[in-house]
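Key idea: predict the complex, not the pieces.
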Amino acid sequence: MKRQVTLVIDDREVAVPENTTVLEAAERAGIHIPHLCHCPGLESTGACRLCLVEIEGSTRPVVSCRCTVRPGMQVRTQTEALRAIRRFVVELLLSRHPGDCLTCEKSGECLLQRYAYELGANRETFPRRDHDHAAENDDPFIVRDPSLCILCGRCVRVCQKYGAGVLDYARRGLETVVGTPFGKPLAAAGCDFCGSCVETCPTGALLERPRRGQGRVWELEEKAGVCTHCGLGCRVYLDTKNGRIVRTRASAMGGYLCARGRFGWSYLHSPERLTRPLVRKDDRLVPAGWDEALALTAGRLGEIARTYGRGAVGGIVGAMVSSEVVASFCRFIRDGLQGDYVDSILQFAGLPVLGEVVRLLGSDGCATLEDIAEAGVLLVIGDVVDRVPGLWPRIKEALRRGATLIVLDFRQNRVARAANIWLRCRPGTEAALLGQILAWIVRESRCNRQALACTFPDAGFEQVLRAVEAERVDTGVREDAIREAAAALGDPLAKAVIVFAVDGAAPEAGQAALYLASATGRVPGGVFPGAIVPNLRGLFQAGAFAAGDNGIYGNESTLRALYVLGEDPVTTFPHTERVRARLAGLDFLVVQDLFLTPTAALADVVLPATVPVETGGSIVGADGTIREFEPAVPPSAIPTAEVLARLAGRLGVAARNTTCARCAVGRSQGRQPAAAQAPVAENTVYPFLLVPSASPYRIYRDILSEKAGLHVVDPYLGHLRMAPGDAAALGVAPAGGTVTVRTPSAELQVRVVPDDTLPAGVVSLPAFSRQYNTLAGPGQTAVPVAVTVDTREGGDSA
Amino acid sequence: MAEGRCAVQQVLEDLQNFATEKLCARCLPCLLATQNARALLERLRDGKAIGGEVHLLREICRRVLQTARCKYGRGIFDTLISLLEKRERDFLAHEQARCPAGACVALLQYHIRPDKCTLCDRCRQVCPAGAVKGEPVAPYRAACRPYEIVSVKCNRCGLCVAACEEKAIIAASA
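Result:
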């Protein structure tokens, strides 16, 4: 508990914790001190000098945003002299601001405009400046207009704190501007497009590009929502006008949203979005009415279920569907149509790891983002930061507070560059490396033996250790680096958090990470399981993962009809061609989705779907936190839950829509055995190792990223990433060329993009993409492949 | 003509040195005040004063001394305001388009002294702005138009002064 300090602000006694600034203390007392450069959550610089106050005993006015409270302080914030000073500062600012408020998007929320009005600033006092910089119009998502900039430096600070750190002051003296290194476009400078700068900008100098001409602040309706573009589920404010999302803001001032959360919503309003059902007639999908489509669907599904009995009808449900709809869907398939098979992407997105997370951590034992920011030791495994971009600012925060960052990844990305200890193991040896760290900690007796005994109840740790010692896997990491990492993680006094991606790590690696946390006594609160797939826990709790051989992959499958809701298995499921053949061979396929996906193109009936933002509901991320939210925009089709209810009505089965997230927990299944993965051996026929990589600009379904326009900033979308040395050896560097990637069972022609973060011998394709799934089978996280240069030009299709 | 340097130019030079050397642009009043004070002083120097400049300059100095963050920012405006106080008449003279030191070129007025002028026409020939009016002596004409310089056309280049052998053209502050 911090000590309270009592001071007097404008004759009002205010008690605040010590180390509060005068500005914050005044805000708390409901007294607004004008300020332009101060922003909650960012360090104050005292640049604008608007927040000057008079403090008794001080000769000159004092900047309140940098002045901490002292007991008995006498502060005056609204004297006539202060008003005159503030008016002078605002008049000076107006002298370098074009003041085109008539056409400015920020009008109504511009702080300069507000203070100019409140202080009665005179526009004519100083000569006025014209638009003397051209607006930077080359950047996607963000428009920068230096003429409107007042050099408050908020964007610079927020970019250093949350973003990629590309914005800074450039030039000096009177010519100072805010810009990127060498004035490059944002994308070339390495911008994340998190848009934090846009949100903090007090004027119109930084704007969301999609927002232009869509409405100004007084026309917007603020709706609280949850971002469904990764497992983190950040709270967002969706500002809408006429049912369209105009812009997205982080929930708190100075909060963080990634590119997906801020700019990735336009797929909702895409003109290509399905709004009417389609029915296959003469081998073509033609628009049909809802009644006709639902009658056909219910009739055919019912007929097949009656004719062939249990197991004839199955379902696949997507991960961007709310938990309530998932539960209704599972009930509809299982109880209404006697289907055994309800599957989802979860099967291929770390089901065994999630099972262990649920077993060891329960529903609320995971670390929070705050835990990460406050951690003393951080172990980051794999490309989790690309999958969950919201982690990056928290990792930066932890580093600022002096945390030790251990990164276990073969990619030399910025997380690895920021690391104190970088364990660059060979792909596929993550689990072995974690085992070696665990073995070292146990040997040095730094672990919580009781916790270890709970984790390995029958084996006993001596046995585990012997196993690690016996298979001394060469991970490619130096012994002393492992020792150093183990010493940091084994320190019982340090608050350590292990961050990994449930859907990114190999099952053994994820489990090894959990055992490591458990063995060092850091469960709960010591593990953060991230996931790019949004509603992972929701699917898990509803039991939406197939068991047994019955399904689209099983040879003995009795499946004859399939209902696919909000998923595109032909793209996102492994073994694309097998899935496509299996779906094409079904008696009846109904697909309910937002767009006409490759799966929908195979369907007999296509129904438009709605998204959680339109209908409300809840999603449960991999860490088990339930995020409930209200509808923010009107649905552009009949809500999915209602479609299910109508189908159930036509089939004569009782549909019970679940409305509460906590009731949505269906048949949760216990621990799943880890899929055994063949050890990755040296292979001369298939010398390269293909790994999936996530991108911060991709939602796990490619079609949504594309319709949202996120793909324009993703240089690797649909391309093969390869170390520049390897690319040069193949003769496809530096411009890139088309190569053929081959596995024993499949091949793919794809363009190469050199990527210097990858080590030699490793190639990478986007996770959950058609390209990766063409080559990879279920559960494979590192696929040996051969890469040959394609002599024929222009083949970019699989 | 007054003695010493022109006060406006002196303080403008100080301000320019400050802007190129010390100015960090991290606190806004100092940056913007420098920019605006420079613009005002340039207006005085270039004879484009519209009145009220000196008052505004004094106001800027007073406010920046209250708001600027560092001693460099306060220092330069302290110099400016003390010079404003000390040589207020010089500054006010600039507002009336007069430079007492005769150093502000834009404020100079060129005159032809009729008593010295020999009507040789050389000044009219060299004038690039066509500001010299007059007719050379012609024996058969009873009267000729005396030479004079039209002030609004004059660009203050000084070529006529150099060209006049009789030193009949003088430049002086009004």
